[in-house]
Amino acid sequence: MPMEPDVFVWGALLGGCQTHRNVQLGERVAQHLINLEPLNHAFYMNLCDIYAKAGRYNDMRRIRASMKEQRIKKEVPGCSMIEVNGIVHEFSTIGSPDVVMDELVFVLTTLSNEMKILQVTLWREIRKNLIEIKEDQ
């Protein structure tokens, strides 16, 4: 790299560690980021997520306890977006309009029911194919 990596490059690397569940590298990268910006909650939370995905819940609790002890907390509310019929709906931890939430619950319930029906159909098809394979042998 022609220049020294900044906090954004290191943060991207930490995100990659989280995605690929690389705990060892994630720990080193998170520690480097925490040394650069000790009050940035995002680095602690990413490390917690890495630990959680690896089943290392004691380490996750240790990081959260450290955050609490240092009075580091997430200042910005979490936010998610979903596109339905070309319209982007935004949801945050501070709440969303009830009408939008009602629509979302309806859509998710409908999708869930359709997936259950497809699952039953898929299993029937798999059983049928397995029986045919067994009969051919």
Automatic annotation (TrEMBL):
What biological process terms from GO does the record include? RNA modification
Q: Which GO terms describe its molecular function?
A: RNA binding
Q: Which InterPro entries match?
A: E_motif, PPR_At4g14850-like_plant, TPR-like_helical_dom_sf
Q: Name one Pfam family in it.
A: E_motif
- Report the protein name in the record: Pentatricopeptide repeat-containing protein
